[in-house]
Amino acid sequence: MEMNIDRISSLPEGVLHHILSFLDMKKVMQTSLLSSRWRLLWISLPHLNFSDQMWKHNKAGLVNFVDRVLLFRNNSDLHKFSLNSRNHYYEADYIGRWIISVVRKNVKEIHMQIYSDKSYELPSCLFASAVKVFTLKSYNYPIQLPTSICSSSNLKTLELMFSRFPKGNSKGELVLSFPVLENLILQFCDQKHLNLLTIYAIKLKNLVVKNGGRSAKLQLHSPNLTSFDYWGGNCGIYSMTNLSSLVTVNIWVHFRDEEVAQSESVRMLQMFNHTRSLVLKNSFPMCFFWQEQLASTFDNLRHLKLIRLCCCNYNLLESCPHIETLIWELPQPVVNCRTKGRGNECGAQISSECKFLHLKSVKIQNLEGCEHELKFIKYILRNGAVLENITITTKKALSSEREKELEEFSMKLQCLFKASSTVTILFLLKSTA
């Protein structure tokens, strides 16, 4: 009869450290009871994960535990320190001394999700250290960022949520310089005291900006940017230069006023005319379209998705001669497709010269069955020389009479002229059944 062999304990220390890196430190400490092999493994563990889910009713216990782990751990370099707080507020003294302690151990990654009962400033040594990845999600009160963040030379990934930027100059201007930063996420950060936020990050590849309420204008210098996501009121993008590397752009703006939407969106789109994929979403349904041909064309654009914009943006489409896929989510509720103060129906001026020589797939969602939609589909079919398929999904029909109207609309589509002999039209009717 073979004796049981403890194969896990015989694994190399590096492998055991990797296994323990997925556990909370409280559970890691419990493994020290397994055998003498495990007893002191934790003192050189490069990944320290703390969560107050393990200390729901004992804040003092968790604070003492974190203190003791950091005190008695050996002096080997630390790779990651993670603190996930969901049940307790943590004072500045605790957060400050933990950050200072792990920075002294040359930590490379710090991930913190914390609740605070008041605002306080992070230690300035944080952004002058060897930290390469820093994520901070603060709740209840914004955490003040030190001025050392303005010139952090080692950060490669920075994610901030509900944090407060340092004060700018007398004009309310703040400059951030990140020479090796590749990923930047800014979510609902407090910048009401700033007028202009300028970011220099020549190696930046991915940028996500989400703003709520008043925010500073953003000026970006990142020639290697490939992905950009923006969510905010109107458009806080002030200037973005040399974006020839852009691949994907997702813009979700809150245009409430048509005139503001017209001017701001045109200015914004001109900055992204090098991108290959563009998603544009407006939070408020309106009869909004570009009245004139855009000054620049999107020669690189291959994939376009429009959300909550009415189907009258022919000028935008005619600025995208090489698109291959088009997805259009029409607004709900239906907006009145009539230009204000001009007396003409929107989209009345359509160029007869445009030909989509690369467009293969079109998806239209929330179709109402109105004349403007019929006109738009007719326009696509007439100009889509290599079009392969159009998939149309209607709004939910709330009556049998409405179902009949949509069925008649579908029949009209089949009779339209088609530039492509192989195109198929799939009409999906949402019924009350």
Number of strands: 21
Shape: elongated
Helical residue percent band? 10-25%
Count of domain modules: 1
- Secondary structure class reads alpha/beta
Mean pLDDT: 85
Radius of gyration: 28 Å
Low-confidence stretches: 285-289, 338-348
Counted by DSSP, the helix tally is 9
Give the terminus-to-terminus CA distance.
67 Å
Largest sheet strand order: 1-2-3-4-6-9-11-13-15-16-17-18-19-20-21
For the report, how would you describe the main beta sheet? 15 strands, parallel
Domain F-box: 5-58
InterPro entries: F-box-like_dom_sf, F-box_AtFBL13-like, F-box_dom, FBD, FBL13/AtMIF1-like, LRR_FXL15/At3g58940/PEG3-like
Protein name: Fbd-associated f-box protein
Pfam families: F-box, FBD, LRR_At5g56370
Describe the protein's architecture and organization.
By secondary structure, this protein is an alpha/beta fold. The chain has one domain. Helices cover 21% and strands 26% of the residues. It contains nine helices and 21 strands. Helix 4 runs parallel beside helix 5 (92-104). Pfam families: F-box, FBD, LRR_At5g56370. This is Fbd-associated f-box protein. Residues 5-58 form the F-box domain.
